[in-house]
Each structure stands twice: as C-alpha cells, then as structure tokens.
Description:
By secondary structure, this protein is α/β, with parallel strands linked by helices. The protein is built from nine helices and nine strands. The chain is 33% helix and 11% strand.
Amino acid sequence: MVDTSKQTYINKLIKECLSEDGEALELKGKFVGDEGLECLVKVEGILEEIENLDLTKNFITHKGMRHIAECTRFKKLKRLYLGDNTIADKGAIALSKAPFLENLAHLDLKFNDIGSSGGMAIIKSRQFKKLQVLIFQENNIGNDVVIQLAKSATFANLRKLNLYRTDINVKGIKVLAKSKSLSRVKHLNLARNYLFDESAKALAKTETLTSVEILLMYDTGISDEGVRILIEAKAFQNLKTLRVT
C-alpha cells in the first residue's frame, strides 16, 4: 500500500515541476524513489500529455522501473531521462517491454548498473524505430550489445550514440565501423574504453559512419599515430570535433 504522505509529496512535485504547457515533468534529484513512481503513475489527467520526463538521480531501482514500464498512459512520451539511478538489468529488461517506446526519440540510461543482459534487452526491442539519442554511458554492457546494436535496423534513426565507458574494445569497434544501420549517427562518444590504434584503423576505414561530426575517443589508449589516422581518414570528411585527450 502506498504511503499517503508519499502520494501527497508526488502531487506537490507535479504542481511545482510540471511545465505550463503540461508537456515536461522535470523531477531530477527530487528523491522520488520506487514508491514515488508507484504514486506518479496513479495521478490522473497528467501523464497522457507528457513528452519529456526527467527522472535523473532519484534512487530508482528495477522495482520502480516496472511501474513506469507497465504504465499505458504515456501516449506522447518522446524523451525519457533515467540517468544516475540503479535500475540494473532487471529494470532495463522491464523497460524494453514498455508500451511507449515506439514514440521515444531520446533515451538516457547513463550510470544505471546495466550489464550485458539488460543492454541486450534494450537493443533487441523492435520498438525504438524513432529513437535519435541513445545514452549508455557508464554501464558495462560490453561488446556483444554494441555488436547487436550495429546490426539492428531498428536503430537506423540514431543521430547520437554515447558508449562512454561501456566496457567495449576493438572487437566491438570493428563491427560498429561496418554498421549500415548507424549511418545517420553524427555524435559518437567512445571515450574511456580500451580501444587503442587498432580501433582507430577500423574506424578510419568505415564506409558507413561517414555522417559523424563529433567523435570523442579520449582516454582510449590511442597513440599519436592513431590520432593521425583518424584525422586523415577520408571517411570522416564531415568531422568537426575530434577529442582524443
């Protein structure tokens, strides 16, 4: 049973944090928690109009994630921010089955203790066809998830892909570099992974990631030679920003 004081708190937050047009609910760092999400999905006349939902840094686990994932009232949700929580694999798996995914354009999952099974559940979902931004930063999803992503036609509309410190290496990069599905990506963050020059060479030979304008590869073990290879790569004619240090 939901604590009435918690429901009162959530109702108060909605009044304070809901935008005037009713399209954005900014709850970042508001101590919502799992019970708060249970309260949130029970609020009438609000969720149907929300396009932006920010739940960053709210002590949410897989238990709370289920309340959001099973809610059928997010009819217009386009941007979902879940960073700095601990939904873990169970939460990611629950999210991968959510009925609102088909309209999402932006999904932020950074810092959530998500591993391979949770990451794979997200990538294997076929409902992300409108997704333009995918942030996996600081989740140890590993090579297999990135390889599956690179091969998935579902994510053909991605414009920004953040794989910062996700436990990938040259094995995943080699497949990523050949991805036909990710040809629209303009912002690619591969920083804080062990990539080295072999990854730079693989990316330099890409025939598909040619839309990239921002490439972040700092703290990846790439040498000056690797940097030169990337700078001179004909594949990156559209590159405007390259950060390697």
